Amino acid sequence: MRVPTGIALGTCSHTGLVRGGNEDDFLLASAPAGGGAGGEGFLAAIADGMGGVAGGAEASRTALRALGASLVDGDVGEGDDDDAMAVAFRAASARVYEASTAVPALRDMGTTLTAMWITADGLCVGHVGDTRVYRLRDGACESLMTDHALREGESMLTRCIGGGQLSTEVDVERFEPRPGDRYVLVTDGVWNVVPPDVFAQVAQRGEAQQVAEQLVQRALDHGGPDNATCLVVDILADGLGADSRDVELLRHERPEARALWPRAVSLRPPLWPWLVLAASALVLSWSLLVLFGVDVAGWFD
Questions:
Q1: Domain 2-259 sits in which CATH superfamily?
Q2: DSSP-based three-state secondary structure for 2
Q3: Distance separating alpha carbons of residues 153 and 6, to the nearest angstrom
Q4: CA distance 158 to 286
Q5: What is the pTM of this model?
Q6: Which of 129, 57, 116, 54 is nearest to 88 (CA)?
Q7: Burial 9-40 (b: 16+ CB within 10 A, else e)
Q8: Of the listed ranges 39-43, 158-162, 261-265, the one predicted with least confidence
């Protein structure tokens, strides 16, 4: 993919050692000059789906696609003066809700969603749920947003994208990135498993790709009870840089979500109960005839 020269990236995602499928997903995308909701920009977003493997994977993918269409393609609608990030989150909520109502098996699907939108004017973060974005600056590691959960470290969310809701409140904050900053986006399968001191130590050292892989590996070393996904975004220069370059990132491990959808179920009543009933009646009739001395075997001579 094409990445601005002022940014370095690292990505890693793993199902973990307990779950049967990966409900995490992420999106990295560049908007060229003249495009995007606010002109040239770069989007890094991460989502942790919920509602079972099929529902969670579809929710995270659907939310990210809608968010990207709004921010990167500039599809925010005419005459809307609201903040572009808030508009993009509303689009993601509406798309997930629409998809959940179209397939009954996915009715309760939902997802967390955390996104960074970097432009020449600064950095905007949108956030719903308990995925996190950390900033590493001058040796300090700081979580920039507040978890929407009943208690830290638990999966009982107070806000999510979807979950039977058409819309939800989104936290949006703006920050001033500096050259040398590192931003780490992670699902709770990483930050909830890796001790904070170890997390900060690993995140400080090495190149972006190396750090992303090491943080996910540390989550696996601690049992890997959940899907684990990490994005690392390094700010190399002021703005996005004057040019862009081709970067080959590791392929996302998450399997194709549609392959995990529930199988279609026929609306016809099943035939097998009637076959069992008919066979039982035949056996009962045969037994009664034999009991009363009827030579049933002679019928077939």
A1: PPM-type phosphatase domain (3.60.40.10)
A2: strand
A3: 34
A4: 64
A5: 0.80
A6: 116
A7: bbbbbbbbeebebbbbbbbbbbbeeeebbbeb
A8: 261-265
